[in-house]
## 1
Amino acid sequence: MDLQAMYQEIILDNYKRPSHRGLHEPFDIEVHHVNPTCGDEITLRLTLEGGRIANLSWDGLGCSISQASTSVMTTLVDSKTIEEVATISDAFLALMQGKGAVVPDEELLEDGVAFSGVAKYPARVKCALLGWMALKGAILQLTDREQTDAKILRIVPDGSKNES
Ligand code: ZN
């Protein structure tokens, strides 16, 4: 089996048997991202536990590239630290924006390398990045929220944490 056929199989496999699919609780954050050019949609939920991604779940609809890429993404980032996730998603982004000229780091991206061929098709790059952008958005919102909470807690005189 040649490399392209193997990559295609990984994508189809993740499309037919997606990982972490099916929204569940608990979650600290839920984001919904849409790729209007293709009609792909992703809802992603996660929690942060001790700085690590946990309780990842998602649901979505759209083309096989968008759904399979989200499935692979969740497998790659599950239980990783925010720093590790940044390294992985930067590498995937670089691969997708490399127009097919970037040689992927297989150790870092694992099944993510299967999307190498997509980089040659600008219209499909957005499909492959949708789940990753949702992840990035979710982490940003969560870390923003934590920083805001920390600021609020510093100015509450008795330090008691108010549920809001
Ligand atoms: Zn798509």
## 2
Amino acid sequence: MSLLEHLNAKLDAISAQSLKRSLRRADTGTAPRQTINGRELLMFCSNDYLGLAAEPAIAEALAEGARRWGGGSGASPLVSGHSAAHEAVADTLAAWFAPHIPQARAIGFCTGYMANLAVVTALGDEHTEIFSEQLNHASLIDAARLARARITRYAHADVTGLRTLLAASTAKIKLIVTDAVFSMDGDLAPLPGLLALAEEFDAWLIVDDAHGFGVLGEKGRGSLEHLGLSSERLILVGTLGKAAGLAGAFVAAHATIVDYLLQAARNFIFSTASPPAVEHALLTSFALIDGPVGAARRANLVARQAQLRNGLMALINRHPHLGWALTDAATPIQPLIVGGNAEVMALAAALEHAGLRVPGIRPPTVAAGTARLRITLCGTHTEADVDALLIALERAAASQERAA
Ligand code: PMP
């Protein structure tokens, strides 16, 4: 069989299950509005939670950074790619997390996927057991597979189950690895309980706060601030392509851990550093997150979240036969569980017809039978924007019910 025949058979099987993915080209726009084929769509799908990608100050800082530093960094960080802008970003993050992680130091990466890969593969050696939460992001799952450690999975948010597993472990080093905010469900990991287990069993807690950084906590520092956590056992991963509105990621941890990553994280050592202009602009993004703009956007997010959640609950109650449901989401990620793959794609198409972009998420990203609309809010969504989504969903629900 030729490779192409082999792949075409696989592609046909994917299509038959309504699971075929394809790229959509946006012509212009930043969250929450995008133009596709000449039509402006109101988006409920971006992870640009504070709407910072659209801030003129960020575009200006990028331009200023490019004038000062040029285009790319030209080399990996340990060769010549580490600029003063990279260092200023890492220093700011270390200061931000010092109240939560004693002796904190930070190290930058080009993406969150890379940061997760680095921390889990570098720390997960043959002496280590990784305790991995069931709903962890794909990058953490892939990282654990690449590590030389033993992997033990624990059930979603199951602190008691994890306790039993930790108590039975004989590994020299134990790493608990979890998302802080689950990307497809919007709920929070039970971090205080996990940290208490880490203290009790001499384990370390790797927290991927991709969806909490910038969003949660009074100053937007994320889940650790939101929950008031502090421990040298915390190893924090944050992404800078979501609420920070740019690109990149970081690990903040005890200085010894960061020093070791610098020696051992192969994907850090053997990969070109991010463009210094992006790092320069991140300093502007941090000032916005830290200042009145960030505070106002976070307050608006909380208000829109309540409006959306109340509206979705009322919608579900009006149409119980559709079997739609909410998750325990406590963040700007507010999914609507629909169930079937074809149903969710039909719903997403109906919303798009009404001028709204809301992605249908299907297996294997989520469990079979739990296909969903992943609705995400942006700090610049207005009350009228959320109403528009709720009205369009009501129309779609009524027509699905008539069709059933
Ligand atoms: N962790 C989580 C929980 C994520 O949702 C994502 C991105 N979707 C990542 C890590 C990867 O971050 P990045 O997009 O910066 O690679």
## 3
Amino acid sequence: MTVPIDLPAEPGAEATARAHPNIALVKYWGKADTAQNLPATGSLSMTLDIFPTTTTVRLDGALPADRVVLNAAERTGVVADRVVRLLDEVRALAGSSIRAHVTSINTVPSAAGLASSASGFAALATAAASAYGLDLDARALSRLARRGSGSAARSIVPRFAVWHAGTDAQSFAEEVAAPDLAMVVATVDAREKSVSSRDAMKRTVLTSPFYPAWVDSTAQSLEAALAACRDGDAERLGRITETNALRMHAVIQSCDPPIRYLSPTSVALFDRAAELRADGIAAYATADAGPNVVLLCAADAAETVRDRVADLAEAVVARPGPGAMLLPASERVAG
Ligand code: DP6
């Protein structure tokens, strides 16, 4: 019997990582390749400094299968399968077949369109790569996180991130300079959404007659948004953000059968952004695949914007946050 002499990871190896959600200013909605999770267009986002996910990956040579515990509940089915698929990618890179315990605490209201999969898969990719002994740079980590969930590619990156479309090797996120901005997260409804963004995205590509126009216009919006970032033009960036969000919701609503994520309160929040602008406060609304609305504004206007929407929804200020990071063993998530 031959004994492998360079085992890439010791059974019992463990790592803990933390990542934050991100909110896209120019959205990712539609895949060019489902197997590799490549987006049809690039996108631009702000990583938040609130609602982190912390994840521990512990290798265990005695485990017959991976164990996934999220927010203290053992997971099976679709959620666990997605985690296992990412671990399989990591094992393939590391040349390992050892199974792992994954324990994760997610402080974002899960699956309510607040990018819980972004922080979740960014933290998982970072912890798993380290636990299996891989030494990946930020680009490689971003590409790995992308395999778990597209938007997770951007949560590897601090502050503002552009995620490039293109081939597997090209499709990672990296930091871009941006004006001094903040976001106000207005939680309209924290319950699980009825159609996942993954399924809704698929339905959009397959059934919306407007999908090709969405792809063309988003590619243009990304170029315009990056130019606004370069020019430090916060208001132009805000206008692009709100227009792109409403176009995404329009293309989603044009599916067959249709999907509508925005509720009357979400629409009221978009109207409130317009009222704020009429009052001279540059606030712009966006929303992901759910009813919650996020308002983009100048950093020094964030508290005012929060107070001006508080009658409609619970609102908190988020600032540009850190990229995914490894944590000391003392921060391990028990389970
Ligand atoms: C509306 O990243 O959750 O938040 O790659 O299938 O996991 P998968 O999709 P996901 O989609 C996010 C969609 C969005 C827009 C965005 O974050 O850009």
